[in-house]
Amino acid sequence: MEGDDDKVFRALADPVRRRLLDRLHAENGQALVGLCEGMGMSRQAVTKHLKVLEEAGLVVALRRGREKLHHLNPAPIQEIADRWIGKFERVRVRALADLKAELEGGSDG
Amino acid sequence: MAESRFVYVTYIRATPERLWEALTSSEFTRKYWGETWQVSDWKVGSPWKLMMPDGNVADAGEIVEIEPGRKLVLAWTNEYRPDLKEDAPSRLTYELQPIGDSVKLTVIHESDTPLSRLIQAVALGWPAILSSLKTMLETGQPLEITRSWQQQGPSN
After folding, report:
1. Which residue numbers of B have CB closer than 8 Å to A's CBs?
2. Element (H, E) at B10
3. Using an 8 Å Cβ cutoff, are B95 and B125 in contact?
4. Nearest CA in chain A to B111
5. What are the start-end ranges of the H helices in chain A?
6. Is residue A36 pLDDT above 80, yes or no?
């Protein structure tokens, strides 16, 4: 049986799905229509990718009014970090990630 | 985007009663939520406050909806950062849903203000606090990073 971690890594292994997560990171709470814009693929294809992300717990869809809005759930990625980054290293790793982002002009890579 | 929203869903190996206690009781929150504690009589319409270790109020608001062990909705305004205090009151929702030997905890912190600075600020604080809450309930020890109050750090 596929465990939760396998689902997370499988979901993250696809560049299209990482791009969808990047877009939710930039603007959380988007409807399907907005997420499809500029993706260069059919609505059905985007829906399928979102379903994989939802099943891995990386995306949470909430109904607000008439819309179904998609949100990035940081919990699974946080749990991966908690697993391999020790309690003391965390602050240093964050500082190094910030430094890298600054040197590379604001991109997280 | 019409509004601002932070969403966090995690599964915690605990009973809903124990998780509820961990979310609301001072004894628990002091351990994993940067030494803070909450003041409220936990009834609909009652005031609610989140206290910093120095005794000042970090955030304040009121209980909008409460079903112990299942759901809590708070109106939430920041009280100690002038830049955040200007934001309209935000809304915090905890939803607890038992699944097997775990509870699915959904945390939604939202505001009608587009690009709310309050939501941006709490979005940086919540992940560490909630991860520490999970770790504390499952292992008995909270994460080091949330044990003390840090204004720029993990605390809301």
Report:
1. 1, 3-10, 106, 108, 127, 130-131, 135, 143-145
2. strand B4-12
3. no
4. A29
5. 4-12, 15-26, 32-36, 43-55, 75-84, 89-103
6. yes
Helix (H, G, I), strand (E, B) or coil at B38: strand
Measured between its terminal Cα atoms, the distance across chain B in Å is 23
CB pairs under 8 A between A and B: 47
A65-89 confidence digits (pLDDT tens)? 899 999 999 999 988 887 787 655 5
- Among chain B residues, the shortest Cα distance to A72 is held by B7
The gap from C-alpha A91 to its chain's centroid, in whole angstroms, comes to 22
Q: What angle do CA A108, A43, B5 make, to 5 degrees?
A: 50
CA A104/CA A100 separation, integer angstroms: 6
CB B12 within 8 A of CB A77: no
Question: Within 10 A of A108 (CB to CB), how many other CB atoms are there?
Answer: 10
Domains of chain B, start order? 4-149 (3.30.530.20)
Confidence of residue B83 (pLDDT cuts 50, 70, 90): confident
User: Which 3 state secondary structure label does DSSP give A60?
Assistant: strand
Instruction: Reduce the secondary structure of B69-132 to three states and give it as a string.
Output: CCEEEEEEEECCCHHHHCCCCEEEEEEEEEECCEEEEEEEEEECCCCCHHHHHHHHHHHHHHHH
Write down the ipTM of this complex.
0.84
Report chain B residues whose CB lies below 8 A from the CB of A28.
1, 4-7
Q: DSSP letter string over B45-66?
A: T-EEEEE-TTS-EEEEEEEEEE
Question: In whole angstroms, how far apart are CA A20 and each of A17, A29, A52?
Answer: 5, 12, 11
Tell me what the mean pLDDT of segment A28-57 comes to: 96
